[in-house]
Design brief:
Order of helices and strands: HEHHEHHEHHEHEEHHEHEHEHE
Oligomer: single chain
Shape: globular
Distance between the termini: 43 Å
Length: about 325
């Protein structure tokens, strides 16, 4: 019990959180503005506790489907792009009403924004600026122009990418299931919810997750959520996957209640390790021992001229 409590403490202590909310939680079961308001109230509680919260909200295409009175999501890239263009303003208007009078800001990302170092840094600065002004950022992939070749993927992966950009210390993915089970609970009555998964057990988790599958409005199965977990792991960010239909799920998760599945990253990762994942090294900067210790302790992200011992290579802003 003490071990479990210490593990869930990483959730209770998190101050910079990204919450990904799936489209099915917002537009099905007759839940429209009411569902948005429900999540907005829970985010408001988190903010009253002094936490910073960024949202990743699916639902632009699903909103477009609803606005056009379509029975289901049609096939075809151009159709999906058009539906996203129709639904995105409605999605943001609904969030704005739910959070009022707190201002919200839309940010749309593409694969280029998370894979190009300059765009990555610009996005990080923009999100920090919004947080400093007490604005709630609400992100989505720029589906209107995205194609299969340039898509980030499903919005679970986008949520993990935003968590890395934001430098978050927790990612919460809200979905239609309670978390990761030992088997398929719809077919196996003995299947049990797994409360905690450590990084060494991620391969076993993938084995029981099965294949990615769609649900008609959303696009991600549990296998895609584990891909998002691995993206978050690369930056040392823990992930909670929980059922968004559970009453006050965000509030209860942040209180440390054992809802959903907590994925604990390896100790060796940190919020700076993302630098190693994407971009080749263009140059090197050698610093003093004092500066190196200061950077390792995470007390600062800045270097001063007197900290630099040697510079090699040719590089520009945004290079590694």
């Amino acid at each position: 019990c003490a071990v479990i409590m210490s593990v869930r403490e990483v959730v209770r202590s998190a101050q910079n959180i990204v919450v990904k909310i799936g489209s099915a939680l917002l537009v099905t079961r007759g839940s429209h503005d009411g569902a948005f308001l429900n999540f907005a109230n829970q985010v408001g509680t988190m903010r009253e506790q002094g936490r910073q919260v960024s949202l990743v909200s699916s639902g632009a295409i699903a909103q477009g489907v609803s606005m056009l009175g379509l029975g289901s999501r049609p096939a075809g890239l151009a159709t999906s792009q058009g539906l996203a263009a129709i639904g995105q303003p409605a999605l943001m208007n609904t969030w704005a009403r739910a959070f009022a009078p707190t201002p919200v800001a839309q940010f749309l990302l593409s694969k280029y924004d998370v894979s190009n170092p300059v765009s990555f840094i610009n996005a990080r600065r923009a999100l920090r600026s919004l947080a400093a002004r007490d604005v709630i950022p609400i992100g989505n992939e720029n589906d209107t122009v995205a194609t299969d070749e340039i898509k980030i993927g499903d919005n679970d992966t986008l949520g993990a990418a935003v968590a890395k950009i934001r430098g978050a210390d927790l990612l919460v993915i809200l979905t239609q299931v309670d978390g990761l089970y030992t088997g398929n609970p719809e077919k196996d009555s003995t299947a049990k919810l797994i409360n905690t998964v450590f990084d060494k057990d991620i391969a076993d988790a993938e084995a029981v997750a099965g294949d990615a599958s769609g649900d008609g409005l959303g696009t991600g199965g549990f296998a895609t959520k584990l891909q998002a977990v691995k993206v978050a792991y690369s930056a040392g960010i823990p992930v909670v996957i929980a059922n968004g239909y559970t009453r006050n799920v965000l509030t209860r998760v942040m209180e440390g209640e054992e809802l959903g599945t907590l994925f604990v990253p390896p100790d060796s990762t940190s919020n700076r390790k993302w630098l190693l994942n994407y971009w080749p090294v263009a140059g090197r900067v050698s610093v003093t021992v004092t500066a190196a210790n200061r950077l390792r302790s995470s007390r600062t992200e800045h270097l001063w001229m007197e900290d630099i011992v040697e510079v090699s290579g040719r590089f520009w802003r945004g290079d590694c």
